[in-house]
Amino acid sequence: MTKTQRRWGTVLISLLVVAAIGAVAWREWPRQPSDVLTLYGNIDIRQVDLAFNDIGRVVEMRKEEGDHVKAGEVLARIEPQTYADLVALTQARFDAQRAIVQRLVTGSRPEEIARDRASIQSAQADLTNAELLLKRRTELLRSGNVSRELYDDAKAGYDMARARLNVASEISRLTDLGPRQELIDQAKATLRAEESLLALAQRRLADTELKAPANGIILNRIVEPGAMASSANPVYTLSLNDKIWVRAYISEPDLGRVHPGLEVKVSTDTDPNRLYDGWVGFVSPTAEFTPKTVETTELRTQLVYRLRIFIRNPDERLRQGMPVTVRIALGH
């Protein structure tokens, strides 16, 4: 080996040693964290299984898969006649009970009061006549001009007339007082019960129409007209437009740099230039193993914390499970 070759060999070895020392220093030397934290996750969209509250035969399915719906829009109907008949029945019972309450609260009519007072006057007149007859026969009995039997008849007639007057007076007094308060309270309680039954029947009739709980897109149309529906059997699956969030995971060293309310930017692989604004809405308080569906084999055994990142003003390009990139500007 020539002297020149030995020189170049020495230089090469020196460079390799310097490079190795530099690599170790780069790895071990403390560095300031990056201003941007990049995370990877997947889109999560809420889904709702829609079912009727009551049992009935489906008569109409208005929406197909992929149709957009608005909150409160009618999606399907079951046969309503049974529930309409129930409303009519409870309405009639409610009206009848309301009339009873009105009658009790109003009390006695003037005609009833006048009738009972007239009965008192008639009974008083009968008592007066019976009293006069008894006096006459009492005098005749003393003089021996009337039999004991006729006197006893006059005495019994007087007692009966006085009893009839007492009965008429009590009836008139009760008519003046009107119904007892206990009867009025009982009738009002029954009226409230009938009102509740009427409201329940009306609500069951309204529930024969299935309405969208929020804006969204029909994912699945599960049944067809003619099928029997119930609360246990969904008829549609609805994907809600709001809220849409990203399910992402953060490692423990970066956990202290992220907090709820922190602004983020979200992009998809489909259109990396289309950025969605969002914010960190939830940070899990407990660690978990990295899901095997989103990380490499080496990282699957690492403990991470789950994040929920809400997206502001999402559009129809975001789909359930779509992979996205989340960038969080942290600053120094």
Averaging pLDDT over every residue, what do you get?
82
Q: N-to-C SSE series? A: HEEEEHHHHEEEEHEEEE
- CATH homologous superfamily classification of one domain: Efflux pump adaptor protein, beta barrel domain
Shape label: rod-shaped
Task: Write down the CATH class of one domain.
Answer: Mainly Beta
- Please outline the major beta sheet: 6 strands, antiparallel, barrel
- Give the C-alpha Rg: 47 Å
Q: Unreliable stretches, pLDDT < 50, 5 or more residues?
A: 28-32
Helix content: 40-55%
Strand-residue fraction?
Answer: 25-35%
State the distance separating the first and last CA atoms. 55 Å
Just name the CATH architecture of one domain: Beta Barrel
How many β strands by DSSP? 12
Helix/strand-derived category reads: alpha+beta
Kindly report the CATH topology of one domain.
Answer: Elongation Factor Tu (Ef-tu), domain 3
Strand order of the largest sheet: 1-8-11-10-9-12
Count helical runs. Answer: 6
Explain how this protein is built.
This protein is of the alpha+beta class and 332 residues long. The protein has a domain at 32-47 and 241-329: Beta Barrel (Elongation Factor Tu (Ef-tu), domain 3), CATH 2.40.30.170. Helix content is 44%, strand content 27%. The protein is built from 6 helices and 12 strands. The protein has a 6-stranded antiparallel barrel with strand order 1-8-11-10-9-12. A 4-stranded antiparallel β-sheet has the order 5-4-2-7, with no helix packed on it. Strand 9 and strand 10 (276-289) form a beta hairpin. Helix 2 runs antiparallel to helix 5 and helix 3 runs antiparallel to helix 4. The chain is rod-shaped and about 185 Å long. Residues 28-32 have low confidence and may be disordered.
